[in-house]
Amino acid sequence: MKKSILGLAVVSAIPMFSSMQVLAADDAAESIEKIQVTGSRIKRTDMETSSPVTLIGADDIKAMGASSIDGVLQKMTAASGAMTNPAVNNGSGGNARVDLRGLGAQRTLVLVNGRRMINSGTGAASTVDLNTIPVSMIKQVEVLKDGASAVYGTDAVAGVVNIILKDDFEGLDMNLNGAITGEGDADETSFDITMGSSFDRGNVVIGLQYTDRGDASQADRDFSDCPIEEDYENGSFYCGGSSYTPFGHVWAENADLQGQADGEWHDFTSAGDAYNYSATSYLYTPMRRLNLTGIGHFDVTDETRLVSEFTYSKRWSTQQMAPQPVWFDFTYDADTMGDSLLSHGVADGEDISYGRRMTDVGPRGYEQVVDTVRAVIGLDGAFDNGWGWDTSVVFGRNDSVDRATNLLNMGSIQDAIEEGDFNPLNQADWSGSNLAQYNYTENNSGGSQLLVLSAGLNGEVMELPAGYVGFAAGIERREEKAWYVPDSLTSQGLANDPRVEPTGGRFDVNEAYVEFAVPLLADAPFAQMVDLSAAVRAFDYSTFGSDETWKLGLTWRVNDELMLRAVRSTAFRAPTVSELYQGKSPSFEQVNFPGAQDQAEVTVGGNDQLTPELADTVTAGFVYAPEWLDGFSMTVDYYEIEIENSISSVNNQYIVENCLDASTGAYKNQDTALCQSSAINFNQSTGRISFNNQLQNIGNESTKGYDVNFKYAFEAAGLNWRTGLDVTILDEYIVDSGTSTIDYTGLVTSGIGSYAKVKSNFTLNASGDNWDAQYQARMIDGLDSYACLADDSECLVPSVGTVVYHDISGSYILNDTVSFSAGVNNLFDKQAPYYSGNNDSNTDPYTYDVLGRRFFAGMNIKF
């Protein structure tokens, strides 16, 4: 088959990554008779399909100094929203996620070597924890930015990340890598070794990687060392924090009092008394991780091959937050509790609310130990007629234990108060020695399990004038279950937080698919090649019944320089076990409301009444590689995704704004479905807001925009140069909850990340005979704060300007055995920006770099 110039451009790499992997993949296409590309199960003679696929190679990962693949994927321009990463301290559970198009990690399907990865992480996981992927074993990553439910099944709504591990490796490869910030923290050390050997009928590859990541504290950065509060009237800022303070805080009908170490009280002021919870909170969370991998194949006969994969990961991760805030109500008894409140307007016998920050016992620690195993065994081969077949079994299991330390059993303390054995107004009763009997460690466990049985067939069914019709078909059975068992005290509601319910459930699904690739025209005027692709998948869920999805794609190669492509597909996403059966639990989320605490108590959890999501996806674009400019190519693709019956929770800030009157604090819109289901409660005496925000089928979501890619490779001054620019333009991201419509385009939020209108990555690479150097620039367009949309007059910083990060890296080959690499990320030490209504650390750790300048270096030894 004739290889056109387009062969170097159809599957375009992100410009911030080296394009060497694209060239290598294309060269491989000429030497391998048939290959399979992410987004299709039909084996082809090249990598040219109707769907846009991005390739990221091992060299690209090394150039970024990344020891985990999430640090690479989260920097893609097509990624946005809330992607859990090491900078997310509150509620991350040590997990790492990727979120294509900002539609949620649950709508991005993660594959390993083309097969489904086990949902993993802490608790009853519903998405893949990228920490389970051994980055040292990655050969390349293929990112399909297109819906692919008809090909792969549920979850492939926003796209697919297919992580391809090394096979057919021979020799020994060792790496020692280290990193540290300019502040001397968040240090990281990683060691890996990969060994491979071939024999007469096969190959075996074994890999080991160990990573040790240190922490950084919010107290060690100027932008995050205290919670910033805004004085709207004077246009100034001050260090604020929580109204749950050391020595106690009393709310009464005519009093708002702050306790003192000597047992006295004074009127509480936010500017002077608020507790700085940043001082003991992590800015960057520590982790240790072990990855073991084994991959092998054995030729049973000349036509049959046995394949096997095994991956195991163990993660030890930690987060640290400010000491526990406790709160409870009691009746003031001056005779037994003392008369210290009488002079401040609190009457004897009055009901009061009491809050305290438990600096008496120290900061809260959250620890996770997570084990994830995945095993694959399969057979594949070919018949005499050239048709290929394959069958496999995939088994995965994820088990987690998480602990929370320095917690107090408030149920026991309240019992002691009622019995007269504990005086909450006496500072001595809150001493560390007295509290030891109430101190406890919370222990929870959870996990998930996956079993997939599959069989497939592929080949060429008939010859048409323009070529052969490609064909693939198969059947699959998938079984999933997940569980979460909370600590006994927590499950009974005997701790200070509301009770957490257990999670448990399962489902199974039987599926069948068929796919065709039909050549329509060949070697015609203005139609060098026109191909039609079609796929249909039918499925039957034990929880939802039967349905189907389909996909149609068109590839029109006009000539050697220009190719047009388009895909129309439907997608289906079934609720996960966690989404269906997760028990209710409290989550403390940032909100902005006059007279209220900055964190609301939000009840979250699953909903067994959920129904599946349905989506329509369209992509259309072109690839242009002109003969008159050798080495240059460009791609432009339009995407549009519309999701019906979307499973989500409502924006927390939106609930507060729509169900509470900002001027009076009174309830409003209580006749609407939104406010009725939220059951919002605002205690104006304590400033505490609480409401329900469990998952539900909230309505529709839609997003559309453009991906643009430019690449140019050339020789000059005796060097090889590669440059590229990757741009994603977000035209809209609309969430319609049925009662309201919100367009998140150009907004940064306090909990679901950001949706920049424009994100771009630029790369310039120069290489000589034994060295390589690279410059990268990542741009995030300016954003407006969602919290300020209703009334930006009360926001001192309602928007964030454009942020650009600059990175440099390089490598040097000493000899055939030893090479070195080094680099600096965030070269100019760009500080994370502040905005009104921020998330955590006075910024958005989902979006911005919180560490500042970071140095990394590594040594590679190979034999």
TrEMBL record:
Residues 329-827 form the TonB-dependent receptor-like beta-barrel domain. Its main location: membrane. Pfam families: Plug, TonB_dep_Rec_b-barrel. Keywords: Cell outer membrane, Membrane, Receptor, Signal, TonB box, Transmembrane, Transmembrane beta strand, Transport. Residues 1-24 form the signal peptide. Belongs to the TonB-dependent receptor family. It is a multi-pass membrane protein. It is found in: Cell outer membrane. The keyword Protein biosynthesis does not apply. It comes from the Bacteria. It comes from Pseudoalteromonas shioyasakiensis. This is TonB-dependent receptor. InterPro entries: Beta-barrel_TonB, Beta-barrel_TonB_sf, Plug_dom, Plug_dom_sf, TonB-dep_rcpt-like. The keyword Iron does not apply. Residues 47-160 form the TonB-dependent receptor plug domain. The lineage of its organism: Bacteria, Pseudomonadati, Pseudomonadota, Gammaproteobacteria, Alteromonadales.
